């Protein structure tokens, strides 16, 4: 029977390395999420645009990034750019970009759905007040849509946090990669896997809690209806 020794988790050096790598995971995820919001906004408006080239580019983007695995996209970006274009790639930069591009496809659907869920009368009311289309979107439609995006965007953020573990495959030292390095040194597989599982659990539930608080404060929570 396997003997477990959880004392390795109490050693300061191991605690420091895990917490440091957790911090890197949070930073990479935040970077990827910020990029996904930019890309998602561009793609969502492209889908709704009457300008056909923009619309077709947006649809092609969605088709590719929703139809291929993140791991494949990550490898294509990290290994493909040096091979095809001779561009040197930095592991963590490639990882953040890959996370952002992948998540951007899903974020775009959240953004588009939230905007299109706003009653058309809101747009008509804004235009009747003399606002331009852009002003109506900025002052009336988008503020309401942002509130409706909170719950699905929180889920996307949590999903991205978990997907960040794939960055370990291109040698980025985030939480999962650091756990593997410690396992290689100590041979304590279950101990460190349980430790990082708990850390992921705590971080993701904290994200969920923050999202719930924002929903309730903005009047979207169940108890505010």
Set down the secondary structure blueprint.
Elements: H1 12-48, H2 52-67, H3 70-85, H4 91-117, H5 120-128, H6 133-163, H7 175-186, H8 189-217
Helix pairs in contact: 1-2, 1-4, 1-7, 2-4, 3-4, 4-6, 5-6, 6-8, 7-8
Keywords: Amino-acid transport, Cell membrane, Membrane, Transmembrane, Transmembrane helix, Transport
InterPro entries: AA_ABC_transptr_permease_3TM, ArtM/GltK/GlnP/TcyL/YhdX-like, MetI-like, MetI-like_sf
Transmembrane segments: 22-45, 57-80, 92-111, 192-214
Structure description:
By secondary structure, the protein is mainly alpha-helical. Helices cover 79% and strands 0% of the residues. The chain contains eight helices and no strands. The chain has helices at 12-48, 52-67, 70-85, 91-117, 120-128, 133-163, 175-186, 189-217. Helix 1 (12-48) runs antiparallel to helix 2 (52-67), helix 1 (12-48) runs antiparallel to helix 7 and helix 4 (91-117) crosses helix 6 (133-163). The longest helix is centred in the N-terminal third of the chain and has 37 residues, at 12-48. It is flat and about 70 Å long. The N and C termini lie far apart (54 Å). Mean pLDDT is 92; it is low at 221-225. Residues 22-211 form the ABC transmembrane type-1 domain. InterPro entries: AA_ABC_transptr_permease_3TM (IPR010065), ArtM/GltK/GlnP/TcyL/YhdX-like (IPR043429), MetI-like (IPR000515), MetI-like_sf (IPR035906). Keywords: Amino-acid transport, Cell membrane, Membrane, Transmembrane, Transmembrane helix, Transport. It is a multi-pass membrane protein. It is found in: Cell membrane.
